[in-house]
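W.,

You were right to be curious about this one. When I first looked at the sequence I had no strong expectations either way, so I just let the prediction run and decided to look at it fresh. Below is the sequence, 316 residues in total, followed by the output.
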Amino acid sequence: MLLLLAGVALTLAYAATTELPVWAVAMGALSVCFTNMSELRSNDLQREEQILRLHACTVGAKIVAVLATWVASIDFSTAMTLAAALTYLLLRVLKRGEREQRGNTVRGIEGLRLAYDPHLIGVSIASILSLRLPFLVAPYVMTPVQTGAFATLLSTQQYVNTFLTTGLYTVMAIRAKNRANAQLEPRMARLERAYLAGSFAVCFVLLLAGPAILGVLGFDSKAETTLWAVLIVIAIPAHTLNRAAQYRFHASQDGSSALRVLSWITGIALGLSFAALIFDAPLAVALIPLVSEALVAPIVYCWARSMHPPRSNGRT
């Protein structure tokens, strides 16, 4: 109850300091809550290598939300909340079915304690900050119409990122479980490269289909919106590279290096956020996803490959 009241208070306070209506802020807050709860469920399923079922749940929920915007003409904020809530419910049902099949009765706080090591708290906080900062800062430097357009574009990009990094998470889980099996590493390396190549391919396709996608989302081809869309899309490969490096560190049980990677990304995102607020610059907000990821991606990925190859070498 205290957490609920705190959430309501924060929502009202945030709405009061921006030009956004309270319902839009409330929908955004609910979407974040359902998304974070879904991540707890999806991480368990990824570790269990339930990749196809996980994709079916997440993609199915997004398709239902998109259809709702067309058929029922609901606004995108409500559609995002619907997608997040439906994803959580589907993953909860899927996870419960897996638990019944496996005879796993660990639940509640004990289940969380077993699933997540304490050092991952910092990783989770840094990850949430780097993803949510653009949404939080945008209303202070953009008009409500601009904020809606930017949030829609960035949410769409993050859906694509989730789809790509889910596979990388599964590769990490397999590596962590099979560190003694050096023969498995070449296959995992090929899968990792395939996901990285896929991120570049997705980026290329989205750039080509940009005008059509903007039309589907209900935006006209204004130069401002088009520029934001390009900046957000070309951040996809850099995001995938950084998550591949992060998961290599996790597979090598090097949580401090994984936290360091996300701290760099979050630090750059914070710097751009302050710059956007100080100079009232919407472009600085649009640059957050690209600059925060792209500045560290090549160095971090090479570092992870050279220092932490997840093979059987006696390291833990």
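Here's what jumped out at me. Confidence is low (pLDDT under 50) at residues 105-116, 310-316. And, maybe more interesting for your project: Residues 21 and 295 are 35 Å apart (CA to CA).

Coffee later to discuss?

I.
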